[in-house]
């Protein structure tokens, strides 16, 4: 979690210096060649693997600090690194290197009657500030994604992942140096003082172009409330699964358990299960049984309690709670219309899934539900940039401006217009 230490009168000076260095690094990055950026990325991946022992040792120290705390098991899981996760971190960076370079891509082109030729071309955003908690792998993902898109990045990790993030950041700097890119292109704030977050949210004297928060509700709420620069973020992942009467029950059971229990602490974990009222006799009991057998606590609506009276009753607050734990709320709804109404009332517009074989039900779900990610017959845990073929993501955005859904390399760019003429003047 974000922590507070003794305030220092030097914080503003430190942060403004970081901002100046980032802005200076952003210029050469903006026109760095794809070859050079990829060389840096692959060198970063090599460095992470070469320094695996040190990274895991620093992570062990971070984990030891959580002993005796009230941190949820899901948050401890987010913090934990092991051989597999370090290898996946390196693989993720290589996957980003393998992506097409978005910078300079011509998004659209057209000719005007006066023979002007106009092109819309992707350009880097500039300097991106990323504020995150618990997940040390975000250090690697965010640094690599921003670099690929030609941006400098300022990273602010939580105190719980400080040592792990520092060890990973050292590997990223090693990769930058190996490719001859400015080492300040990826900076990790060296203090845990909350004043550093405030300085980032104020924009560091105009150095920061966008902020991406990746953490708990309190962090994201603070960022969205206080930021004086644009924000790509989601406040909560209140994800729903609707199981229609036309759904294959065996498929539904597998998807529901995976969506809730694969990793309960991620934003794509399902928090509410909605079951078609027409399928109470066929679908509801098998779904409840498979969830409870998997160790999930079910909080049930009154209709569900009539079928399974031993379950815990759901309160009104449950329908708007992101548990990030092995808990799910279950309600019976009046078909697809009832599911859509419930989602519209309680969803955070992150991710929703429909399990159905009826194409008309799927069409209505996709047309009328306005969340960033919609899935048909698939787990909500696929709400992830890596699973979308983006290599990785810097976060999930639920707003409607610029970026929405997984924020990958394309979403970390803006655009400019190039207009080619042949001596035209405007009458």
Automatic annotation (TrEMBL):
This is Gamma-glutamyl phosphate reductase. It holds the Pfam family Aldedh. Its EC number is 1.2.1.41. Pathway: Amino-acid biosynthesis; L-proline biosynthesis; L-glutamate 5-semialdehyde from L-glutamate: step 2/2. GO terms for biological process: L-proline biosynthetic process. PROSITE patterns: PROA. Keywords: Amino-acid biosynthesis, Cytoplasm, NADP, Oxidoreductase, Proline biosynthesis. GO terms for molecular function: glutamate-5-semialdehyde dehydrogenase activity; NADP binding. It is found in: Cytoplasm. It is an enzyme of class 1 (oxidoreductase). The gene is proA. Its main location: cytoplasm. Residues 20-279 form the Aldehyde dehydrogenase domain. The keyword Ribosomal protein does not apply. It comes from the Bacteria. PANTHER family: DELTA-1-PYRROLINE-5-CARBOXYLATE SYNTHASE, GLUTAMATE SEMIALDEHYDE DEHYDROGENASE. The lineage of its organism: Bacteria, Pseudomonadati, Pseudomonadota, Alphaproteobacteria, Hyphomicrobiales. Belongs to the gamma-glutamyl phosphate reductase family.
